[in-house]
């Protein structure tokens, strides 16, 4: 399957997915064909350039800018590249409705808490972990969900629990959650590339095991 990954920052999830795709053992049966970013100098974009992956700037830095793509141009480019799945990995901008409509059930996001708690507009980065700690929740962990037109509200596909420990700091919790994100995203991308997602009649997506 052909994958487009969207990144705004360091891109550690993107790197793990890409490494899974290029590893000799063929752990992920996919190819990262495009990296999309709103931040052309971020770590994820630099990694893409040094690995020969085309980098697209989206959205345009300012509406009148000659740099960057409009939503319809982005959809056209994704189609030209034959993209099967769009993977958001620390992409901080809202995905435009044109893209959501063009790739139904084909856009995934990773969020660093157990949705539907601690998500939504304004809850990103360290704020998510601060909110989880402040709530007194004993577990946090990554959620991978399909993307709709709002922040963090699409159907949940996969989660993994990470224990909150006494005297946790947001930074320590973030690191433990990020380690789980890397494992979970690679597992999920492996499953989507093998067409192991089944949609239950009530609209809930499930990952089928290999056997
Ligand atoms: C991750 O915590 C992800 O859950 C969130 O943004 C962070 C991205 O980290 N959406 P990285 O850029 O993949 O290192």
UniProtKB/TrEMBL annotation:
Top-level enzyme category: transferase
Entry's Gene Ontology cellular component terms: chloroplast
Domain Formyl transferase N-terminal, residue spans: 1-189
Keyword presence, RNA-binding: no
This protein's pathway: Purine metabolism; IMP biosynthesis via de novo pathway; N(2)-formyl-N(1)-(5-phospho-D-ribosyl)glycinamide from N(1)-(5-phospho-D-ribosyl)glycinamide (10-formyl THF route): step 1/1
Keyword presence, DNA repair: no
Enzyme Commission numbers on file: 2.1.2.2
GO molecular function terms noted in the UniProt entry: phosphoribosylglycinamide formyltransferase activity
Family: Belongs to the GART family.
The protein's name in its UniProt record: Phosphoribosylglycinamide formyltransferase, chloroplastic
């Amino acid at each position: 399957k052909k994958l487009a990954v969207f990144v705004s920052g360091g891109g550690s999830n993107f790197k793990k997915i890409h490494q899974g795709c290029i590893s000799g053992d063929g752990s992920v049966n996919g190819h990262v064909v495009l990296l999309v970013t709103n931040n052309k100098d971020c770590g994820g974009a630099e990694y893409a350039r040094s690995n020969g992956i085309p980098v697209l700037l989206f959205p345009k830095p300012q509406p009148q800018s000659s740099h960057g793509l409009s939503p319809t141009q982005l959809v056209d480019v994704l189609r030209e590249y034959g993209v099967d799945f769009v993977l958001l990995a620390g992409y901080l901008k809202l995905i435009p409705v044109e893209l959501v409509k063009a790739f139904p059930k084909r856009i995934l996001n990773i969020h660093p808490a157990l949705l539907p708690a601690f998500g939504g507009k304004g809850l990103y980065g360290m704020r998510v972990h601060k909110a989880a700690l402040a709530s007194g929740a004993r577990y946090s962990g990554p959620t991978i969900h399909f993307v709709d037109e709002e922040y963090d509200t699409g159907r949940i596909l996969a989660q993994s629990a990470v224990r909150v420990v006494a005297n946790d700091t947001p930074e320590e919790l973030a690191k433990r959650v990020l380690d789980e994100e890397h494992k979970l995203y690679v597992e999920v991308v492996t499953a989507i590339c093998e067409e192991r997602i089944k949609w239950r009649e009530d609209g809930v997506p499930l990952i089928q095991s290999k056997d």
